[in-house]
Amino acid sequence: MHDTRYEAPRSIEEAVIMLSSGSVDDVRVLAGGTDLLVQMTSGGRSPSLIINLKHIPELTRIRFDDSGALYLGAAANAFTIGQNERIRQQFPGLHEAVGLIGSDQIQGRASVGGNLCNASPAADTIPSLLTSKAVCHIAGPGGATRTLPVSEFILGPGRNALQAGELLVELELPAPAAHSADAYQRLIPRSEMDIAVVGVSVRVTVDNTGTCTDASVALGAVAPTPILVPEAAAALVGTRLEPADLERAAAAASAACRPLDDKRGTAEYRRRVAGVLTKRVAAEAAERARGR
Amino acid sequence: MTQPRSFRYVGTRPIRQDGAEKVTGRANFGADLSFPGMLWGRVLRSPHAHAKVVSIDTSAASEIPGVKAIVTSADLPEQRPGGDPTDMYDLTRNILAREKVLYEGHPIAAVAATSREIADRAVAAIQVEYELLEPVLDLDRAIAPDAPILHAELRCAGSDPKPEGPTNVASRILIERGDVERAFADADVVIEREFTTPTVHQGYIEPFACVARTTEDGQSTLWCCTQGPFTVRSLCAALLRIETSKIKVIPSEIGGGFGGKTTVYQEPLALLLSRKSGRAVKMVMTRQEVFRATGPASASRIRVKLGAKRDGTLTAAEASLAYEAGAFKGSPVVAGAMAMFAMYDLPSVRIEGFDVVTNKPKVNAYRAPGAPMATFASESVVDELAASLEMDPIEFRLKNAVRQGSVAVYGPKLKAVGLVECLEALRDSEHYRTPLSENQGRGIACGFWFNGNMQSSAQIHVNEDGTATVVSGCPDIGGSRASLALMAAEELGIPVEQIRPIVADTETIGYNDGTGGSRVTYATGTAVIEAARDIVLQLRQRAAAFWDTQLENVGYEDGKAIPLGDAAENQQPLPLSTLARRAARMGGPIVGRSTWTARGNGPSFAAHLVDVEVDPETGRVEVLRYTAAQDAGKAIHPSYVEGQYQGGAVQGIGWALNEAYFYDAEGHLQNASFLDYRMPVASDLPMIDTIVVEVPNPNHPYGVRGVGETSIVPPLAAVANAVQAATGIRFVDLPMSPPAVLAAIDRTRG
Predict the structure, then answer these.
(1) Cα(B695)–Cα(B708) distance, rounded to whole angstroms?
(2) ipTM score here?
(3) Considering the entire predicted model, what is its pTM?
């Protein structure tokens, strides 16, 4: 008989010691469980140790520092994030992405850290983390810590940069510039309870004249990992974000896709819709930025 | 039979008797029962869609500690081919594969062990040697001259000339009426189109689950979720070749069936394992097993040709239907062929149908089996015909709609039917007049279902205090207990709250065919009414004896025996409760009973109206507004009638827009989960508005027609017609998923 042990450590140190007791596949963390438990019941995983992170204060904490940077505990649940007015104000796109995860019940458990570590190509929050230049704070054995940009944290479908014994503690999102805003949209055939066929996050910064001074575009579900598309961002910078400018960004986004043909959508369809959503999301982000 | 002038209880909306149990989570469904010392049964399933089974070696599995029994097809007796309605030769091969595996998920062996994990390990330890064969995954491949043959012994029934070689076409049917050639020659407009629909699943929320227990004397009890406990009993008895009296089936509450739970899969395996091990054996399918190995609905290809005069009169229809049966013959192609034009007065018709086997799970009934896909085809062409004649789609349909006295395409002369009333209700609705915006479209379609009859029996026991128990044998999948209680209340004249309706096991009530064919409120309902009238007669007899008068001097009203004629002068009415309390002294326990083979379940017609908006850049279709009008004959409990209209509409919307089995080239199902098998979720849908039309069925005491199935027939075409109106594009292939719609928009734009 295969037994699975469950632990609920109270500190990062305790958790790291437990994590170091076995291989990455054999020891799994439970930051919410909305992916892990499904993987276990569908026969995909049978870890011998599950470590619940919800009782470690740093892991569920949500705070802003004096510079306005957001520190998001890796296991903070989606519902709590959704209720946070400052996150909604400062990171409206991330707020939208978090709000799209699962159902109300799932929201009570699911976490952004878990969504990131699960490293699904279609993860809803990762494009927003990418356009917000989020940085991972990682704890390791012996009190070691290191930081890694989200863009380097994701290695492939289901693969992240954590080594055995390492724990994602929190995500740092730098304070957005003035007159900057993000937005996120995804295409799903249904209206909820579905996996993105394409997901797009755009962040733009505008000056007093309405000209775009900075932009970032990230796509989900169109490549082995969520990707930043600098060509699409470049198409926006220096423009007044007129429809023709958005079309150029859309074309760049479509061109950057390396999608799969599968049950969730054809490659051709994903490429097309990545462009359509880039245009729409950039327009939404621009409108928000101008209003600030 | 006579129509009561007015109703006291029928037509009201009392709280359903099973409601509190269900909303508090206390109701017992298939997987809720457990016994101490119970074993878990698990099934070894084929990883291949088509292969010869060369050998099965269970020796390693049987040595795993905790394994108590293993069964293979060697444990099931061989059956004779050709049975009707169930071919037991095929059924036993579907329960456990013999010579070949015919679909991914086809059961090969079953294990009972002391835990589910051990059973799973034992299943994995069974060695099967396969000889792989090319899988046949669609109709084109199945009928190709060089197609791999699924069943060497299969010959096409009904083909002319008589077939010689083996084939994947199990049968051909033909419906012919009038001079079709000439009728098409008489038409001013003729439109012909070919349509396809994919394999879809009923998507009931509760996976198959059962517990079987056998005692030392060979008596087996089977608890299971099923639409037909008596069907389960008779099929299991035949499969195991044991006497019917050796099996008692106790139906649990059921978490959806929609036709899917009208046959057996793991129930005979649980019985076999319990008989072999002497222990109780529980089996619960995973969602993946449900998708891969229980009967979905047929994929189809349908060609339709329709002709009409310039004034809108339909002259002729021709159709050819090919339905996938899955691994064994028996698709609902005949029903589809008979239903697809049943809405219209059509003098000349020629419909050909083909039942085709493929390497997919054997199909099973799904709500109006066969009709939704065929009606998708016919109602799409009807719409196009109306448009080409520049006629309003409702007026065009009204002009051709069947009425009382019309001879239906499928044979009979119709009694009173409500199609015209449904169409008029939509035509006169506020919905039909509401303006639409850009990228929006409105569609309408009609639908028909025969409705089933079959055998029902019912008993009513009057309790000592004058309350009553209504006992039937048809599992309640759509609120039937509430409806049966209302009908009993109406006849007995006591409040519905004083009536407890129950679904009994196979030893407690006489034989009942299953819950299906929209038959229960009609057929079992009639039995309940007759059982209640049996009680009323007994109460009148008791009162007559008590008053020392003739039976004709005793009436019955509002729950009381009423003195009439001479008796009226010196006697007071005797309430049912008094007669019940005095039962011991007045003739003993009061039991009413009725049993019959139903004959007159009148057809139910519907017309659905839907508004959609199509995103021209993503191809996503949003359903904005929906109105379903349908003839209920008489709505006993209007809430559950409306619920049937809404549920059928929603399932049809799913079929139209996103649901489809997605196979890889080897025949492995790629989307065996609710995440990727995209049924609609609540937030996808607007409120489904309903219009309950009541044109009484002359064959029911209150005018009831079955309502459960017709509602899934119109939506496929209604949605397609609305998408056509929004985009100008006629979609002939389902589902109209975002990629398919966008690709079509791109093609039209060039």
Answers:
(1) 16
(2) 0.94
(3) 0.96
